[in-house]
Design a protein that fits this description.
Layout (H helix, E strand, L loop, with lengths): L1 H6 L17 E3 L5 E3 H9 L4 E2 L6 E2 L6 E2 L1 H12 L22 E3 L4 E3 L1 H9 L1 H4 L3 E2 L19 E3 L4 E3 L1 H5 L7 E3 H109 L4 H12 L20 H27 L16 E3 L5 E4 L19 E2 L8 E7 L6 E7 L16 E7 L3 E4 L5 E3 L7 E7 L4 E6 L4 E6 L8 E6 L12 E4 L6
Helix pairs in contact: 7-8, 7-9
Length: about 525
């Protein structure tokens, strides 16, 4: 079959009606071949049964016979793939260019499976050198001797033919192309590995640079947030000071105006009295009643009871130094505010990543999966009463401890009406009822009833805060014996326990208190510290 297929031209695979490769090829009695559907439609649309090629007329519709040989050849040919972009096409195919299977270095031609058949069956062509299909076969021939390039001259680093090796390059060192190919391929493999390593290093460098940019952006965002916070506070201080200055000046002006109004009112009253007396004097002076005039003369002639206004004046208040004094007070306020911020920044650099210890949590408490939030639930969980667990007070300790140095953490207390925060020593009584105080191992502050703050110093110290903290910072200096609490947003110190004597481990202490029917259901949240130092 293969031998037969190679004798057929490309045109012999095409139907003369549809001009495409045969589909179900059939033969007419006159010996011509068509697609079965094509010849049937041709006869259905014409009055005569005429062969489209030889024009022979049949009196009756001929019986069509399947051309089995042509069907097989067409089927075999269709199994071969047409050359795709980037693939080497067959140089012999005249219609659709099929994908070449081999290239002949003697014929300088690439062949598909069908047209390659002679090189595989004919003895003369079997001696030709075949290779995997390549384009531009003429580039593989020696331009000078028209022979295949089969050798590599190591002296000139060029590909040559056999004649070149005995003529132009006879004193040079040669190796077969395949041998040099293997060597160069190994070198390319090594070069590729080196390039990939260089690429990987640069990718890692890109990652580091991007990470640096991310860190820089995070630092920039923190610094911008800090700047907004600081300058907002400064702006508010400036506005308050300006309002106080204006109020002071306006108060002085109001006092001056009030004094002037009082003087004017008194003067106008005296003028009214004097006008009345003037009218009486004028009336008496026109009287012709001798007795009446003499009887009233003395009383009208006497000086009226009026105030001596000679030394009375309204002196404008002095505003000299008012602005300078206000600016000085503002500078003092800003200085104090900056000291507060610097102090908060100083302790924030000792921030530690605190997480809640579920083994210490009261059974009523609900802890988040990441160990950063706690609130009190309505249902008591069935938990083992291990020695570490707090069973009376609704509290939980942190996993992290401190036995030297300093540490700092921040807790969001927003929307809570009750809470208690601080640190506790390891040996606290976790089962029975006790008084929370430094004497019993607790250094804490609390909120009750939404606005009553106390430091549980034993006895408790009531705290007067200008604003309700939304986030509380807790700082411990173990050697210094210091526990301090900060209003993070206001950058102010809430309270400090000083002169403490620590002899054992200290743990962060959290008590979200009862939820009071949902009024106090908000959790205590351990927050990341925005370190700006």
């Amino acid at each position: 079959m293969s031998a037969a297929s190679c004798l057929l031209s490309e045109d012999q695979f095409l139907c003369s009606i549809c001009l495409d490769v045969f589909t179900d090829p059939v033969s007419t009695p006159c010996g011509h071949n068509f697609c079965k559907n094509c010849i049937n439609e041709h006869w259905n649309s014409n009055d005569q049964y005429l062969c489209p090629l030889c024009k022979k007329v049949f009196n009756t519709r001929p019986e069509l016979h399947i051309n089995t040989l042509l069907t097989e050849v067409v089927s075999h040919s269709s199994e071969q793939q047409a050359a795709k972009p980037g693939e080497v096409p067959c140089d012999v195919c005249t219609g659709t260019k099929l994908k070449a299977l081999k290239s002949c270095l003697v014929c300088l031609t690439s062949y598909c499976e069908t047209h390659l058949e002679p090189h595989l069956t004919k003895s003369v062509l079997k001696r030709h050198q075949l290779m995997d299909p390549v384009e531009n076969l003429e580039d593989r021939m020696c331009k000078k001797h028209d022979k295949p390039l089969e050798l590599f001259c190591k002296t000139d680093h060029t590909c040559v033919c056999l004649l070149c090796s005995v003529l132009d390059h006879k004193t040079h060192e040669f190796v077969p192309l395949k041998e040099e190919y293997e060597g160069k391929k190994a070198e390319l493999g090594k070069t590729e590995a080196e390039i990939q390593e260089m690429i990987q290093k640069r990718r890692l460098k890109i990652q580091k640079i991007k990470h640096s940019v991310d860190l820089s952006k995070e630092a920039a965002d923190r610094e911008k947030a800090e700047g907004v916070q600081v300058f907002t506070a400064l702006k508010e201080s400036v506005e308050r000071s300006l309002n106080e200055l204006i109020e002071t000046i306006e108060e002085k002006q109001r006092t001056t105006e009030k004094q002037a109004e009082d003087f004017i009112k008194e003067l106008e009253q005296e003028i009214s009295e004097l006008k009345k007396r003037s009218s009486e004097v004028e009336k008496l002076s026109h009287s012709e009643d001798h007795l009446h005039l003499l009887q009233n003369f003395l009383s009208l002639k006497a000086a009226p009871s009026t105030k001596d206004w000679t030394e009375v004046s309204v002196r404008p208040p002095s505003y000299e130094g008012t602005v300078a004094k206000a600016v000085a007070q503002l500078e003092e306020k800003l200085s104090k505010q900056m000291k507060k911020l610097i102090e908060l920044k100083r302790v924030q650099q000792y921030a530690v990543d605190v997480t809640l210890d579920p083994d210490t949590a009261h059974p009523d408490l609900i802890l988040s999966a990441d160990g950063k939030q706690v609130n009190c639930g309505d249902v008591r969980k069935n938990l083992p009463d291990n020695p570490e667990r707090c069973s009376l007070y609704h509290c939980v300790l942190g996993k992290q401890s401190l036995s030297s140095g300093r540490f700092y953490f921040e807790v969001q207390v927003k929307e809570k009406t009750k809470w208690e925060l601080g640190v506790a020593r390891e040996s606290i009584n976790r089962k029975g009822k006790i008084t929370v105080s430094p004497q019993n191992g607790y250094w804490t502050i609390w909120l009750r009833n939404g606005n009553k703050y106390k430091a549980l110093a034993g006895p408790a110290v009531r705290l007067s805060l200008k604003s309700q903290p939304q986030k509380v910072g807790v700082f411990v200096d173990y050697e210094e014996g210091l526990v301090s609490f900060y209003d993070v947003d206001a950058a102010t110190l809430i309270y400090s326990f000083t002169g403490c004597s620590f002899t054992e481990k200290l743990y962060p202490y959290f008590n979200p208190c009862l939820n009071d029917g949902g009024i106090n259901s908000a959790p205590l949240i351990i927050c990341p510290v925005n370190q700006t130092v």
